[in-house]
Amino acid sequence: MQYVYSSSPWLIPRDPGPVAALFARGGRPCTFRARHVFNFGEQPRAYLIERGLVGTYARNPEGEPVLIALFSPGTILGAEKSLKEEHLRVKPLQARVLLPVRALALDSAQFTRELAESPGLLELALRAFLSHDDSKIEGLLINGTLDLPSRLALMIATLFTALGQPLDGEPRPLPRQITVTELARLVHSSRPVLSRVLSRWAREKLIEGTPGAYLYNRRLLGSASAQPLQGKEELSA
């Protein structure tokens, strides 16, 4: 497909080493278990993800979660929020731990202060954080305009990239913590609809294995034509 803003939809690019080093010097180690949910929009701090995977979400008018971005090792969660003057203001943003996380937490005020003391470092950070926004916008476009099989295929490929294992010719499973329910949440669908798509892919030999233990390889990327969404996906998936 042709991307608009970023070739890394959803997945935040790795942040520059000198910016991440601020967390190594002054950050507080913390860990989160898979499926842990916290309202990071209420917290005056940012996190450097060292291990694991985090998804961030807002809520639509119906109260359903809307995926904003995925943060993998080497990325800073809450960076842009921290740099704004009103960083103490509560924002309706939620983080969900998809894979067990080890991170370094740094108070937003300290993070902002240290960047402000080094114009070169601040410019480097701002350029990086612009790429954060590009990935978020691209992901929102995909979830809002592509049919479910297309965006599911792209999401699965993105998850393997986040794991450092881009899809190739070898069939591999997703981590057990990323269930069908979790996948459905990531692509703004429901578990029953998503299960039907996976079952159809299995019948068509696009994926291998059995329900709950599917194996994926790059053949999946040819399964979706990435067409604009036409009508209600639930009726055609």
UniProtKB/TrEMBL annotation:
Q: Which InterPro entries match?
A: cNMP-bd_dom, cNMP-bd_dom_sf, HTH_CRP, RmlC-like_jellyroll, WH_DNA-bd_sf
Q: Which residues form the Cyclic nucleotide-binding domain?
A: 47-132
Per the record, the domain of life is Bacteria
Give UniProt keywords alphabetically. DNA-binding, Transcription, Transcription regulation
Q: What is the name listed in the Swiss-Prot or TrEMBL entry for this protein?
A: Crp/Fnr family transcriptional regulator
Q: What SMART domains does this protein map onto? A: HTH_CRP
What Pfam family is a match for this entry? HTH_Crp_2
